[in-house]
Amino acid sequence: MLSGVTLLDPARFDLRGTLHCAEDVTIDVNVIIEGDVSIGRGTSIGANTILKNARIGDNVTINAGAVIENCIIGNNVNISQDVQLMLAVVGDGTFLPFRAALFMTTIMENSMVAQNTCLQMCVIGRNTFVGAGSTFTDYNLVPAPIRALDGKGNLSLSTRPVIGSAVGHNCRLGSGLIVYPARSIESDVVLAASKDRGVIERNIRY
Fold first, then answer.
1. Least crowded by CB within 10 Å, which of 23, 42, 100, 125?
2. What per-residue string of b and e applies to 85-95 under the rule 16 or more CB within 10 Å gives b?
3. Contact 170, 108 (CB under 8 A)
């Protein structure tokens, strides 16, 4: 387990499961490893990080206080302080600034989800930016059943209490957006909040 690994303080390293490490891995103090965890070559794990049942790629930087549970993290990913990830897949080259949160969400390659943004049950395409302080809800904010596009392209009842949203490739979404469940934003869209448009209630087409 410790071959090729630098523990900055072995006395303050908490291994509660199985850890598989490639070469040139650095682990800071007070890191907790639970379940089955693998860490790729050249990766750095910051202080007070919790990794549980996670697969971390090569050349990844995970900064202090991150919590990563049941996730797959690609190569060359930068995860900032206090990021929370659960049941998520993060593509190569992605940047997650401080306090971003992902739950049951997939982010494709070379995208960025800015600070204090929460994505729940979403898919984010390649080369896409989601601005700070945005929230993609998976539960309807109004007392009505969630409707979504069916296989024929018609808006129908989803018969689900929660459902996420999808953003295409090469999108630029501004800060402070609230996106209702089951909404889609097509590729190449540039979208900014305004006094008349801060809540996304419908699908957005290019």
1. 23
2. bbebbbbbbbb
3. no
Contact predicate 62/44, CB 8 Å: yes
Work out the burial of residue 196: count CB atoms within 10 Å of its CB; fewer than 13 is exposed, 13-18 middle, 19 or more buried.
exposed
Number of continuous H segments (helices) and E segments (strands) in the chain: 0, 31
What would the pLDDT profile of 173-192 be if each residue is shown by its tens digit? Answer: 999 999 988 889 999 999 99
pLDDT, position 74 = 98
Q: Beta partners for 18?
A: 36
**Contact indicator for 49, 31 with CB cutoff of 8 Å:** yes
Which residue's entry shows tokens 């593509």? 91
Helix, strand and coil content of the chain, in percent to the nearest 5, comes to 0, 40, 60
Task: Say which range, 79-83, 119-123, 146-150, 200-204, has the weakest mean pLDDT.
Answer: 146-150
Burial class (CB in 10 A: 0-12, 13-18, 19+), 31: buried
Q: Are 77 and 92 in contact (CB under 8 A)?
A: yes
Give dist(CA 155, CA 138) in Å, integer: 17
- In DSSP terms, which residues pair with 31 in a beta bridge? 13
Model-level pTM? 0.90
- Determine the distance from the C-alpha atom of residue 155 to the mean position of all C-alpha atoms in its chain, rounded to a whole number: 28
Per the listing, tokens 């690994």 go with 5
The separation between CA 172 and the C-alpha centre of its own chain, rounded to angstroms, equals 17
